[in-house]
Amino acid sequence: MAHTCTHDTSAAPEAVWRIWSQPETWSEWNPDVEFVKLDGPLAVGTTGSMRTKRGGTHPIRFEEVNQGRSFQLETPAMPGTKFHFRCEITPRDDGSRLSQSISMSGPLGGLFSAMMGAKIAQSFDPILHGLAAKAEGAAG
Q1: What is the pLDDT of residues 73-98, one digit of tens each?
Q2: Which of 40, 42, 118, 127 has its CB surrounded by the most CB atoms within 10 Å?
């Protein structure tokens, strides 16, 4: 089961993608990220690490990348569980709709999803606000 947070912005999808597709700069607008280091370009299979302010440093791997529209990354966040974060931009007449969701897999994925999935998704709200503000500022 995926738990999702959305946010509408006046920024064009292209402006949002320019920012979201540069993980090395996420710490500039994402209040939870200290740094991201990738072992290659943003592409399916690229690995790296992300240090968050709450959870330490985690290995990450991009499972899916749809240029200009979405990506999904995974991290083995807890024993017996992988977290899958999906980030997507949907064009709107007046800008874009941003969405970020989390789903969990593995032997304990269902349990952890039921216990904490909705709370984690709520934590995406300031992240999406930060991304929107950065994209709106870049467009102006």
Answers
A1: 999 978 889 999 999 999 999 999 99
A2: 127
Say if residues 3 and 101 touch (Cβ distance below 8 Å).
Answer: yes
pTM: 0.93
pLDDT above 80: residue 20: yes
Measuring CA to CA, which residue among 67, 74, 57, 75 is closest to residue 22? 67
* E strand intervals along 79-121: 81-92, 95-105
Whether the CB-CB separation of 91 and 13 falls below 8 Å is answered with: yes
140 in any annotated domain: no
Boundaries of domain holding 74: 3-135
9: left (phi over 0), alpha (psi -120 to 50) or beta: beta
Partners of residue 64 on adjacent β-strands? 72
For residue 34, give both structure tokens: 């200290």
pLDDT-derived band at 139, boundaries 50, 70, 90: low
Q: Which residues, other chains included, contact 66 with Cβ-Cβ below 8 Å and sequence gap of 6+?
A: none
Rounded-to-integer distance, Cα 21 and Cα 69, Å:
10
